[in-house]
Predict the 3D structure of the following.
Amino acid sequence: IDEFGGFVRDITDRKAGSHQRAISTDLRDYYSASSTYFEGAAYRGSPPKRIYNPNLCIHGTSTPDQFWTALSSASAEDGLLPRLVLFHVTGSVPATVAPQRDVRWVPHDILMKMADVAGIDVAKKRGNLAGVKVAQFAENKPYVVPWTPDALSIFASIKETIERDGRRVKPEMRPFMQRILENAVKLALIVAVGINPEKPEITEATIEWAGNLSWTCAAAMMAEVEERLSDNQREANYKRIAALIRT
């Protein structure tokens, strides 16, 4: 989603319609529903439809001003912001580079790995989803990716650090601390399956990388919330002046 800040404004604005505000609630529900199902609203004459094992991923880009002006402190309190993994890009604009390949080109080894994940027989061009209708979808039993003992040790260490440092931050920042570990597990799972789709395993290196990334993104999020998030124009002006003084 390009101009992601505008999308966030549409679903969080106080004047937004009930159907728009429901999107924010749905996004929070999707976050923890991958092992169960998501059930939509019921309509007259038709029961609610279940989506089993949803794995919703959104890649949103936005300018900082557009993104943060679309939010208020309620977005942090209701859990929407802590569920996001923020990559705060700073520094000068990079030099223009002439592309060497077409944007639709994908490395062959990545295509083959994705074919393995989807169970696609490349020769027959048919996969395990071929010919399946939506109405036939039923609950799946997810494959549980195992952890190595060293990975579990790193996991426990990260958890201990978060619990210790979480007591030092302001109360309004604690929801961000509490999501670091969960975001790290999701990132580690993606990488583990990407490395070996047939026999994925979360290793020490995988969870350490994921923990560092999740921690860094959460730190950037908390810094930006402290500096930019405001509930009214007076608070926004105050934070803008404070930022200019720091600069």
Q: What stands out?
A: The mean pLDDT is 85.
